[in-house]
Amino acid sequence: MKADLHVHSTVSDGSFTRHEIITLAKEKGLTHIAFSDHDCTVDFDKVSTLDKDIKIIPAIEISAYDFERCKKVHVLGYGYTNAVPLEQLCRPTLEKRNENCLKQIEILAEMRYDISAEKVQKYSNTCIYKQHILKYLYDTKQSDELFGKIYLEIFKNGGRCDFDIKYVDCRDAVKAIKEAGGLAVLAHAGQQENYSTVPKLCNCGLDGIELFHPSNGAKAMGIIKELAAEHKLFFTGGSDFHGLYERDGKDLGDFTSPENPVISGAM
Question: How far apart are CA 267 and CA 262, in angstroms?
């Protein structure tokens, strides 16, 4: 088994279609991939039959928050059999994210950029992401690079478009995945430094934790291994592939999951 269990496509904020990713996965020698698109389960039934040589695992990445500790918490869900609880939980997030991006587009128009919701819409699927806005500005030569001056000065560091939405509670994310018949895994804890959230997520049914990820350095991996041993969590891994839409992103298959009998057997 060579599995990349953290992959994003054009269904959310990735730049490659699922067909393109499957082709790339075969070139990379992967045997399993999981389209863990943000807050949606769109068209999984169709995608699961796209290629007989690669096993495609039902997956989702839920954008959540620990309101007690003021930490972002992303929860991966694998192998779900009923998408309804996930869709019910995540639909408001998609709507709020789209509204948030429409506000950012309005602000950019006020700043005299040639932009409108209609022009950016063609880049999106389930909703508009800031990556779609940045790609439109780049394609129309209003920006020299995707994550350059506009990104750093307007979307980050207190710029006019540096505002976000309220996400779902991280405990509700785990509960929805379990209700959907899936396995709940804490994503890239080294990136969001939300280790202290693990015990309460375990009380809700957390099954695993992502060990191999571009943002998990040696120190983070040490902490993750200790948490996994203490709470009896299995490990997963993935590249968090977004194609062009990730600053300093890794390529598909650069980070893969350990051959864990718990998760591979459940899938």
Answer: 9
Which residues have CB under 8 Å from 47's CB, separation 6+? 18, 35, 56
Instruction: Kindly write down the DSSP assignment for every residue of 68-86, as one continuous string.
Output: TTTEEEEEEEES-S--HHH
Q: How far apart (Å, rounded) are the C-alpha atoms in residues 237 and 227?
A: 16
Contact between residue 184 and residue 174 where contact means Cβ atoms under 8 Å apart: yes
Report if pTM > 0.85.
Answer: yes
DSSP state of 34: E
- Average pLDDT of span 25-31: 95
Going across the sheet that includes 183-186, the strands are 168-169, 59-66, 71-78, 183-186, 208-212, 234-237
- Give which of 87, 63, 86 is closest to 75, Cα–Cα: 63
Burial of 129 (0-12, 13-18, 19+ CB in 10 A): buried
**Which residues touch 218 (CB under 8 Å, ≥6 apart)?**
none
pLDDT band, very low/low/confident/very high, at 244 (cuts 50, 70, 90)? very high
- Burial of 205 by CB count in 10 Å (0-12 exposed, 13-18 middle, 19+ buried)? middle
pLDDT tens-digit map of 155-197: 999 999 999 999 999 999 999 999 999 999 999 999 999 999 9
CA atoms of 16 and 190, how far apart (whole Å):
26
Question: CA-CA distance, 180 to 174, in Å (whole number)?
Answer: 10
Helix residue ranges per DSSP H, the chain? 18-27, 44-47, 84-110, 117-121, 130-139, 149-150, 170-179, 189-192, 198-203, 218-231, 261-266
For residue range 87-119, list pLDDT tens digits in order. Answer: 999 999 999 999 999 999 999 999 999 999 999
